[in-house]
Amino acid sequence: MSFLKKSFDFFVTILLWFYFVGGFFIFFIAVYAVAYVVCRDRETAFQAVNHYFYKGFFILARIVCPGLSIDVPEEVKNIGPCVVVCNHLSFLDPILLISIFRRNKTFVRSDFFQAPVFGWIIKTSGYISPMTNPALVGNAIEGIEGLEDYIKSGGVLFLFPEGSRSKDGRVGKFSKGAFGIAKLCSVGVTALYIENTEKVFTPGRFLFNTLEKNTIKIRVLKELSPKYDDESFSIKSLKDEVRNVYVERQGPN
User: Fold this and answer.
1) Which among 5, 54, 23 is positioned nearest to 207, based on CA atoms?
2) What DSSP assignment string belongs to 177-243?
3) Alpha-carbon distance 178 to 158, whole Å?
4) Backbone dihedral region of 158: left (phi > 0), alpha (psi from -120 to 50 degrees) or beta?
5) What backbone phi and psi angles, to 5 degrees, belong to 211?
């Protein structure tokens, strides 16, 4: 049974990676090219293509993984405009959020901007690089300056305040960046909670877990509308308040 399971996991993994890589270069790259030439608002068009590309990935995953289901309530789908923060368990987390939100932005690792084709797509999609790479500081500044108008026009900025995937599933330390941006843009913060993506695609493992019964869930933990003009407000207190929501959700060790 173990051999058969590993064989099936391998087959499905190759199929999913073929969609991810082959489907991108065979079909979706042409869609991006058409959107670039035809659409006046290339950023919005590229975000929509990203959304449908990753939505297709999860539809395929549900079809080829017999035990997999994905539970995304309407409450989550209708979020916005706001800064969304979320716990981070797997490489699947960011593409899951892109598959949910048609208009989305996030910060992307600076080395991705250097990648052929993919770097062009994330730049045109309006994704933002960190300030750590001197060559991309202009992109970062321009992206941050445009966030207030983007969010207030209905877009969603999603961020993982832990900065990296949790190694044990427990919520880690939060950075203040997401909450500073929310204050800068004078918008609310919505805390989302993802469960079980790490069971489908475990960090450090190449194969997807395809036969185990598993439900990826995403829930709204809390929606906050901070009083940024209040003298008692601080970014640290907002960060700590949101992190405590995750700690309470997970319960004691």
Assistant:
1) 5
2) HHHHHHHHHT--EEEEEEESHHHHS-TT-SS---SS-EEEEEEEEEEE---TTSTT--HHHHHHHHH
3) 8
4) beta
5) -100, -20
Whichever domain contains 148, its CATH number is 3.40.1130
Query: Rounded distance, CA 106 to CA 93, Å?
Result: 12
The 8-class DSSP code of residue 176 comes to: S
In this prediction the pTM is: 0.93
Q: What gap in Å lies between CA 69 and CA 74, rounded to an integer?
A: 16
- Answer yes or no: are the C-beta atoms of 217 and 197 closer than 8 Å: no
3-state secondary structure 190-201: EEEEEECHHHHC
- Is the bond leading into 161 cis (omega within 30 degrees of zero)? no
Give the number of residues written for the chain. 253
Cα 53 from Cα 154, distance rounded (Å):
21
Question: How many Å is the maximal CA-CA distance in the chain?
Answer: 63
Backbone angles phi, psi at 128, to 5 degrees: -115, 140
Q: Which domain holds residue 125?
A: 2-250
CA 28 from centroid of its chain's CA atoms: 20
Overall number of domains in the chain:
1
CA distance 246 to 91: 20
Q: If we measure between CA atoms, which residue out of 207, 200, 198 comes closest to residue 12?
A: 207
Q: What is the pLDDT of residues 183-227, one digit of tens each?
A: 999 999 999 999 999 999 988 888 999 988 999 999 999 999 999
Q: What pLDDT score does 134 carry?
A: 76
Token reading at 113: 């901007």
